[in-house]
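Researcher: Last one for today. Full complex below.
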Amino acid sequence: MQGTYYNPADLAKFGSIGEFGPELAKKFFDYYGEVFKEGELTEREKSLIALAVAHAIQCPYCIDAYTTDGMEKGASEGQMMEAIHVAAAIRGGASLVHGVQMMNKVKEMSM
Amino acid sequence: MKSLKRQDHSLSDSFLQLEVLQARRPDGRAFPRFEEKLESIGLFPLRPTQLEIFQVNVGKMCNQVCKHCHVDAGPDRKEIMTRETMQLCLDALDRADAAGQSVHTVDLTGGAPEMNPHFRWFVQELHQRGKHVMVRCNLTIILANPTYHDLPQFYKAHGVEVVSSLPHFSARRTDAQRGDGVFEKSIRALQMLNAVGYGIDGSGLQLQLVYNPSGAFLPGAQAGLEREFRQQLQRQFGIHFNSLYVITNLPISRFLDFLVQSGNYEAYMEKLVNSFNPAAAANVMCRNTISVGWDGQLYDCDFNQMLDLPVAEGAPRHIRDFDVTALQQRAIVLNQHCYGCTAGAGSSCGGQTA
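Model: Here's the assembly. Have a good evening.
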């Protein structure tokens, strides 16, 4: 067993998850490939969304992969940071909007 | 910033660059030899197709010192082509014309080609011969001093296709690669080129931009990057251009130094090797190009030129001996840096190849 839970070298081994379950892995990677193809959104826009989600779910592999991918797709530093702020705003907002629930409860219980 | 040569840096020696490229990895494994990759797809030895582009490096002198430069160009480089050697180039093109083996395009590169004192004379002579002339202009030269301010008009008068490096539409990333303030000057130069009609629909004046990554990563798809550059440059600066050529940085000279110094060399080479694309390999630019060095030596491409790898023994090796038929018989000289032209969608002086 390795000394840490995360090892950067494991990112390149993502495809090996098929070793313990080839059929589902194939379905996943086929789907994954299709998702990131240019459609109504450009590949660069999808890459920025992936980068934002990577930060929201705090996946180090995904941050590594989609920082590189964003650079390759021509995203600027400013665009990448704005995407992360979108993730941060939604995460922060998700906490804060529950403040309404707290306020409702307070008001319900108060005279 | 000084050139590697002026710093007496070990990687200014092409022999040592080739040693790095051919060395085993720290774990003892070796990257597969490029020749073997080509052999596996039936392309070895690599032979020319039809000679279409006569690329002339008129010198290593440049007003910029870009961090990725494969030429190791800069103000301290004094190697530039003499008028006599330019005349030998013209004579060679004339002989090819007379023999019915015309080469239609002449691609002028450097350094900053405009800094060669015989540059304008050479362009005029080429234009008179009906050649399509491309100039790899670094943009900032147009603003470098007043004697260059009329370059857009000069290019226009001679039907020159202008091919200009602009690694990104953000100042930060452009300046990181090409030097502080380069982005702002490049934008002003592009506006000057637009003002005389370059890049404007219907003008017939071609303005191409060149994108290459500002770091240890490969370029993305050309079409998507072109769309993004067009949108951003038009929106932010009102700039128009015809096409964006996406070029991969080859691991030689200053870019090799950057890769080694930053600890990115192994991963970058691995990415190039793993991204080997047979379709790109079939379309590499050395198959339809000949590269002439500042001293008249002949090479398969500008990268081989900088690695001091001349055309194969037995082929004419100097412009005075230029002979299309003899050159077509040669095997193209290959080494590990060639993986840069075959990775992903491929790379050439004209952008992606696959």
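The mean pLDDT of chain B is 96. The beta strands of chain B are 53-57, 105-109, 132-137, 161-165, 207-211, 243-246, 289-292, 298-299.
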